[in-house]
Amino acid sequence: MATKHMFDNSQGLVERNLRGTVAQNPALRYYAQHKVVYNPAHDNKKVAVISGGGAGHEPGQGGFVGEGMLAAAISGDIFASPSAAQICSGIDLINHDAGVVMVVNNYTGDCLHFGLAAEKARAAIAYSGKQGGGVEAVIVADDVAVGRKRGGLVGRRGLAGNIFTCKILGAASDKGFELKKIGELGRTLMDNMVSIGTSLDHCHVPGRPKGDEERGALAPEAAELGMGIHNEPGFKHMDKKPEPEALLGEMLDLLLNPDDEDRAYTPFDKEDAPVVFINNLGGMSQLEMNAIVDLTIELLESKWNLHPSRVLCGSYMTSLNAPGFGVSLINHKRFEKTTGESLLELLDHPTTAASWVGVQSGWGSSSGHPRDRKAEEKEADDHLQSVRKAGGSVSGLADPGSSSGGPSNPDPELVKKAILAACDATVEVEPTLTRYDTIVGDGDCGETLAQAGNAVKKALQEGEIPIDNAAGTLIAIGEVLEYAMGGTSGAIYALFFAGLVQSLLSNPKGSQADVKVWGKAALDALENLGRYTPARPGDRTLVDALDPFCRSLGAGKSLAEAVEASKKGAESTVKMTPRLGRATYVGSKDDGDMPPDPGAWGIWALTDGLRKGLGQ
């Protein structure tokens, strides 16, 4: 597996990738501040289909912005979902009077951030009094690897079926279908699509350690079945890779076996003529991909008596340079029977998205004048300002900044010292969290937390975080986190801080934010968070450390005691079986091999830094 890159670290790489994507299509624009690729000419009479997710899946999703597909795509950092603030800007940058359909992969962070953006969009539409608009969400969940029993609360993951969904719904929008019908088409598509992935190794993220153990490399002869798109381990490890016919045969069996009650999501009869959609995870040669297509068709016909109506193969949604692929099957006849619409007509509908068919028109003069990127960035800024000034803006709905209500911080300088210490703790613990998360997840937990810590520290040092008023302090920190911290943990932190603020504002103005006030706020915020995530103690998530911390403070115990409770909660995750998040998909390990949950350990490190900063 190659660990050498032209770019030796990921700093600025996502932004360059997106600028390069837009450079290949003259119709598109790029809003750098929030990593949005969008089509400013999207017809306002047509529903806007948008999607997004972490970087590292290129060309998904920025390469699929264009007429007949996406109106906008929003990118997070590598393998981390974009924030709700980014998504809200993406909505505001496009014409969406006919409504917005969000195509969201079924990962916790993506669902939370897009869900929060959807709520803001609905509120903005109601506030503006616009008629005909609205928001529909289509959650892409096509993976069969884990199955119903183990998937539990998480459900099926979203794989390359995301891009197929964007194609179908984008075509429906281009043909003038109304909002609710497009949403129904997307959900019906989920009932008729199944996918499974495999890989010979994990990908390597630029800038991360290159050692085999540190990056979770597979042995030279090994392979894993049930790979996702975030570098997480498969559900089945194979010490010796099977021959291609045996491997593909097992994959098709997982997709098609009607007797597998755990995975028989979509039935296929011999006359159903499925659409075959084969995705390169990024590191497979086209020579082998074409051979995989041929063998897949051969096995479908010889074993299952199925003859494809369409065959598509390419790099639609990658996992950087992972040497693997995925197979998706779509039952277009059941789709048409349910919806009355031809999926094949929607699939064949033209699009200008460069990564689907390539752009062949619209370049204008051949003079070769370079794109004026600064002017285009100003164009995006001006448009956002005009939308916000008109009222009903999604990205400007909540006014960030300080608050004068609620209790005051008794010692502002001590508060500043405590925040800085907590930020430093996130940076110090990053290598440990990265090591833990490489084993049980996609390896970005430490980087995400450290990035957030550095952003808060910078904002504090530049005077952007007020330290006199408790609620104002947390509002400003929450605003920084929403911009700087992607992924599942980013949404959870933002929601928790929002709960703290609401509780603090219930106290009289001018009162003091003492231990009792903070204890109640912690319990209130914990309860508020529980409305948005099913995670509870025992599920092996950051809640295992956050819950005991909040309950200890709420019971009147000291900060030191609460931090100790948080540490014990984090340590207890070593023996837990994950029930939520990407760790759910990791193959079982022997007792003693699993590290603490990275998110839980990060909570303990952060709270311990806070304790040290307060001198307790």
CATH architectural designation of the largest domain: Alpha Horseshoe
- Class of secondary structure makeup: alpha/beta
Number of domain modules = 3
Computed over alpha carbons, the radius of gyration is 24 Å
So what's the CATH class of the largest domain?
Mainly Alpha
Number of strands: 12
Helix content: 40-55%
Explain what this protein looks like in three dimensions.
Keywords: ATP-binding, Glycerol metabolism, Kinase, Nucleotide-binding, Transferase. Catalyzes both the phosphorylation of dihydroxyacetone and of glyceraldehyde. Belongs to the dihydroxyacetone kinase (DAK) family. This protein has 21 helices and 12 strands. It is an alpha/beta fold and 616 residues long. The protein has 3 domains: 181 residues, Dihydroxyacetone kinase, domain 1 (Rossmann fold, 3-Layer(aba) Sandwich), CATH 3.40.50; 125 residues, Dihydroxyacetone kinase, domain 2 (Hypothetical Protein Tm841, Chain: A,domain 3, 2-Layer Sandwich); 202 residues, Alpha Horseshoe (Serine Threonine Protein Phosphatase 5, Tetratricopeptide repeat), CATH 1.25.40. The strands form 2 sheets. Strands 1-2-4-3-5-6 form a 6-stranded mixed sheet, with helices on both faces. It has a 6-stranded mixed sheet with strand order 9-8-7-12-10-11, with helices on one face. The longest helix has 21 residues. The two termini are 48 Å apart.
Structural features:
616 residues, alpha/beta, Rossmann fold, Hypothetical Protein Tm841, Chain: A,domain 3, 6-stranded mixed β-sheet, 45% helix, 10% strand, Putative DAK2-dihydroxyacetone kinase, glycerone kinase activity, DhaL_dom_sf
